[in-house]
Amino acid sequence: MEVMVLAKREFSTGTLFTVSCTLREYLNNIPSDSNTYEIQREIVKNVYLDALAETLFNDDHIPNIVLVADDKYENIGLTKLNDLQILDGLQRTTRLQAIYAVLNENIEKTNSANEQILKIQQSGPVGAEIIRQARNQIAKKLASGETLTKMLTAFDRIQHFEVWFGLSYEQKVRRMLLLNAGHKSVSVRHQLELLFLTWLPQIKTLSGNRLHIYREKERPSIRFSKERVAGDFHFSHLMAGILALAKGRPVTTNADLIMDIKIGEVNDKFFEEVSNESLIVEVINLLIALDNAAIRSDIEARDKWAGREIVIVGVLAAIGCYAKKNSMEISSALRTAAQALERLPTLNLERFEASRNSLDLSKINIGNVNKNAVFNGMTAILNGSFDGSWAEYFAGY
Q1: What is the sign, positive or negative, of the torsion defined by CA atoms of 201, 204, 207, 213?
Q2: Sequence-distant (≥ 6) Cβ neighbours of residue 312 within 8 angstroms
Q3: What is the C-alpha to C-alpha distance for residues 202 and 177, in angstroms, rounded to an integer?
Q4: Of 98-112, 146-160, 208-222, 286-300, which range is least confident?
Q5: What are the counts of helices (DSSP H) followed by strands (DSSP E) for the chain?
Q6: Can you list the pairs that 328-337 forms with residues at least 24 positions away whose Cβ atoms lie under 8 Å?
Q7: pLDDT tens, 99-146?
Q8: What's the pTM?
Q9: Which of 113, 288, 158 is nearest to 212 (CA)?
Q10: Closest alpha carbon to 214 in 225, 258, 313, 274
Q11: In this predicted structure, which of 56-70, 96-110, 225-239 has the lowest mean pLDDT?
């Protein structure tokens, strides 16, 4: 992407350049799959951005888009930037790409325009809606007497960008979250995934075909809970479970938990230990044992039970607590738990569901109650006192 570098400023975390180029130059050079950049969230609905076509065609201001690159450029003036990814402005860029592609589809009838439209449509329900809106907005302009060629000249306007160089992965994540702080919030689950995203390839490699792990942007947690089969796990649920393992008590996935991680409330020494390959293997074996134990129960949802966040958090919290109380290594406690689950004839999940359904939901936080009940049940399994009667583990609620 050929740009004019307007300013440069050095920071302790990296170098920031202010640059400009035409929107046409930007859209022709930004990766067409920029929405797949690992730290970005999915394309989301936004009624204000849906009016971006009017902003564009009226030549009104479009806020700076923030990009990130790995290379470093020293000179002020005309230069070419490569390998750019979007740090802030994905939602705006996607809508601009849609308008640009639909115009080119009608004027030049190019394959690249059709491919771009297809990629946006396939990004999810919101992507298909963005293309539909772009076509409707262009049709309205045509009905008012505007020509396709005239509309396309709107992309010759100069757009300003901020481009960061030299940021570490952690700094990219933190800056992205900061830039989005005033916008439609980035989901807590997505934030949790970003803070541990470097672990995902290792977990996938070590689990092989035994586990299938999904991110929030690939399969939102609500959809995941409905479609889950044995062996499927949600990455944010696993990371919440790892944190519960570290703390030795159930945790809740919320903004407070994210802040605890950011300010180092969770022990750094633990993270060094838990990122060890052998320990990750023990976690994987524990999850498989948990799945197998759940499947031995006689309930319709037995293949979904072990994938619930409340179950993963409750089980791993109990194991962390057990390790602390017995001065055990985490890996040994995980191994002990997996073996105990394998020996268990059944988890009697029909009694779990009956006990849970007997509670007065108007008087309790059902998520916390479920996690604590699972915590109590897993503790009993580790201590050899589990009798399959879940009512006592829900007692007090």
Answers
A1: positive
A2: 233, 237, 238, 240, 241, 287, 306
A3: 24
A4: 98-112
A5: 19, 8
A6: 330/245, 330/270, 330/273, 330/274, 330/279, 330/282, 331/278, 331/279, 331/282, 333/382, 334/279, 334/282, 334/283, 334/285, 334/286, 335/282, 335/285, 336/382, 337/286, 337/289, 337/378, 337/381, 337/382
A7: 999 998 888 766 677 788 888 887 777 888 889 899 999 999 999 999
A8: 0.61
A9: 288
A10: 225
A11: 96-110
Spatial distance between the Cα atoms of 66 and 259, rounded to a whole number of angstroms: 24
Concatenated DSSP letters of 105-138: HHHT--HHHHHHHHHHHTT-HHHHHHHHHHHHHH
Q: How many residues does the chain have?
A: 397
d(C-alpha 393, C-alpha 305), whole Å: 17
pLDDT in tens, 186-211: 566 666 666 677 778 888 888 988 99
Residue ranges of domains in the chain: 2-171, 187-393
Strand, helix or coil at 344?
Answer: coil
Tokens encoding 212: 């299938």
